Amino acid sequence: MLDSIRLLGKHSFIYGLGSLLNNLLGFILIPIYTRYLVPSDYGILSLLIATSGIASMIAQLGLGTALFREVIYKESDEVTVESTAFYFLIGESSLFFGVLIIFSPQLSGLIFSSLDYAHLLRLIFLTCLLSMFNVIVMARLRIHEQSALFAMLSVASFLVGAVLNIYFIVILERGVEGLITAGLILAALSAVVCMVLFVRYLRLTFSISVLRNMLAFGVPLVPANLSSLVMTSADLYFLQYYSTTAELGLYSLGYKIGMVMNLAVQAVQQAWPAQMFVIAKSPNAEHQFAKILTYYLVILGFVGVALSVLAREFLIIMTTPEFYRAYTVVALVALSYLLYGVRFITNISLPIQNKMKYMPPIIMSAAALNLGLNYLLIPRYGMMGAAWATVISYLVLVVINGAVNLHFWYIPYEYGRILKVVLAWGLIYGGSLLVQTSNHWLDCGIKLLLLATYPFLLYTLCFYEKQELDNFVRLLRTGIHHLK
């Protein structure tokens, strides 16, 4: 079991490093963005990015995930699977995004109540099309657990993206249009690099039966994944309609900080499919799955608590006063992403037993709840209503999805230990709310000390098992021995 956890941790760390660097761009440039953009610009940018995410999700048809099952679990011929998936995806997505580009003026009127953003939508859809060249290549790297190469590509993307973003927004002062243009150039360069890496594995072969199997697995994921995306993006459109673009911009900035939690969640998600199918074949799979969820919450829960505790000081130090209020939504956003990760990592029996037909109604029900809550809460409470709507929806999703998965394959999760972890989070976050001096740097220092009590709080709550403590002592002694 420890080998599986170590392997998952290793690849999660490297995938997380790659994703972190790739997405860290927005965080590093926050001091620049908040001086060259106003809150309303943030709102427009967030709607464009959300629209691209929804369009890309539909275009992929779940093929990226279907590759894992077809190659690892069913052990189909890898060359045939990858070539078939690549040719189909490029052809289908070219048609799909071509239609969206043609109807960009109509979409601009629908989303922004103005035709002024049609050209930005065209750039976004072209960027999405170019990103399709990366889907199969990145899935192949994860199947072969080439996490180092994955991270190297992400580092290169980060560095080039940083240069392009600074050039377009600071030197050329192109604002939102400059950021979208920079993203398009980066997507084109990434597509070229990925094709150079992938072309040697590509063959002139196409299997209808393999495509049918992948679509049977992947297509049910589309409404499910799309519903998940709706749960994190619908509030943006509601805020645009029921509130102001400036309020939307503040919410988007708070969301950007909370999305650090999503980077950690995505790191595990990228490593998890390959590990999940391997663990499922082991004789003590249930025990391993239960332990992994507990450790997942211990580690990623701390990331969420740290974000929530330090969000206010971060914004005060890094931005201008008109953006400070964004900190109020960070804790709820971080909790939402943590819950999303729990849903993902406990979704075991449905993909393994190929019962994916149950996923769409589960997630679509949660998405419908989210839409209803957004409609009820946002007109009255603005961005806080949007944040609460997301948290409640994800909590309901975790409960329903977990119950269905346990029905088909019971996993003895460690509910008692999980409750102790949640209690530790609450004590630290509640304590941080009492810290408010006249010096923001002092507040930050006190809160960092408060966060440092996390492992000791868990010990006080009798969370650790004897074997875990023994392993920790052994690792500590080994480290001290090496230092000597």
Mean pLDDT: 82
Could you name the ranges where pLDDT drops below 50 across 5 or more consecutive residues?
A: none
The amount of beta strand, in percent, is under 5%
Sheet/helix structural class: mainly alpha
Total domain modules: 1
Number of continuous helical runs: 20
* Silhouette: globular
Instruction: Provide the gyration radius in Å.
Output: 23 Å
The largest sheet is:
none
Could you tell me how far the N terminus lies from the C terminus, measured between alpha carbons in angstroms?
Answer: 31 Å
**Total number of β-strand segments?**
0
In which range does the helix fraction lie? over 70%
Strand and helix order: HHHHHHHHHHHHHHHHHHHH
Characterise the protein shown here.
The chain has 484 residues and is mainly alpha-helical. It has one domain. The protein has 20 helices and no strands. Helix 5 (78-102) packs antiparallel against helix 7. The protein starts with a helix and ends with a helix.
